[in-house]
Amino acid sequence: MSFEVDITLGRGGREIAVAFTAGPGLAAILGPSGVGKTSTLDAIAGLLRPVRGRIVVAGQVLFDSAVGIDLPPERRACGYLFQDLRLFPHLTVAANLAYGQRLADPARRWIGADEVCDLLAIGALLGRMPATLSGGEAQRVALGRALLAAPRFLLLDEPLSSLDPARRDEIMGLIERIRDSLGLPILYVSHDRAEVDRLAASVVHLAA
Amino acid sequence: MLSPAEWAIVVLSLKVSLVAVAGALPLAFALAWVLARRPAGPLVLMLDAVAHLPLVLPPVVTGWLLLLAFGANAPLGRVLAMGGMSVMFRWSGAALAGAVMAVPLMVRSIRIALEAVDPRLEAAARVLGAGRWYCFRTITLPLAMPGVLAALVLGFARALGEFGATITFVASIPGETETLPLAIYAALQLPGGEAMVTRLALLSVALALAALVASEWLARRVGAGWWGAGRAGQRGAHVL
Q1: A interface mutation test: which of B121, B122, B127, B227 has the most A CBs within 10 A?
Q2: Domains and their CATH numbers in chain B
């Protein structure tokens, strides 16, 4: 299994239990807003500590409250495309892309800057500041930044929700290419059934 | 325009104030960090109150407390004496008084800047592989830097204007501890001192106004990221 998640998240005084397993390729998490989809991704990335439970990704235990394992985010090798992108506003596109690449163990890197720039068609943007990018451009830069950090798996949080239809199609095509050519386990959060049908090998439903 | 004696006063005041802010910065930053990033508990509330004490205490009380701490037979005074140093009636004592008075303003400015840095950006940096310290250096500090600079300017202006704590702690010794405000006060007591008072007072107003304008200009740039942009950007472009 690529993702084995069985956790209880504390949110605003109540607890939500999230449990699923997902096989290789792209697995989608579907569910209405507020059901804990983003919190689940945050927990897998190490940004939100579950009350208890266990998270295993691609054979590595990232969190296990029973034995006291809780890897800090920087040691989880996680590529996280945030819904709000979070490009660093004080750094150029090039420096944003290089941020995680410089920190990654060279032996673990599996994609180069040139390859990422070609794949995402962002080579022309390198000197720009994030504030000057369009929505689609910023999305591609954020995805490139995540890939260059040499992640072992990808978390994509509604990567299409803020885009117009033409851009949606373009980014969806990119995600298909990443899924097919890079062979990374991918967890893809969405509330759009059509997206999920096109992209996902397996679907996890979260209900309130 | 200024006489040599007046220039000497200005130079001494600038030296005292610069040393004061440089000394106050690490303490102010540490306090601001704790106040901005630690959950509010009784200890943090207490620290907040103590950090702001010099802002509301009568400056003469602050000066007297400094005397109690750094006098020849006081605990901190003895520590300094073991190193062959003393701040009593020295310009360094005036700088110490200025630093203590500058800390509350600097803490406020730095704290606001740190609170304005989006924690979601820090989270993104951590996920990309940055440890706490690297994240602080590359994300938090550059984004908060305008606020830190604003704190330096504001603290400098505050130290430059310090009167009550200074005169209580290290007296007003021409050439050693007689800074701008103390010199103005002394000139006021002298017959025929009005011209000197006017010149030094105008200079004080100009310096204070310039500092306030500069610190406001800087504070508005917190989180907008103009400071780290050029350097970090070029570095990044070079890596790729």
Answers
A1: B127
A2: 4-234 (1.10.3720.10)
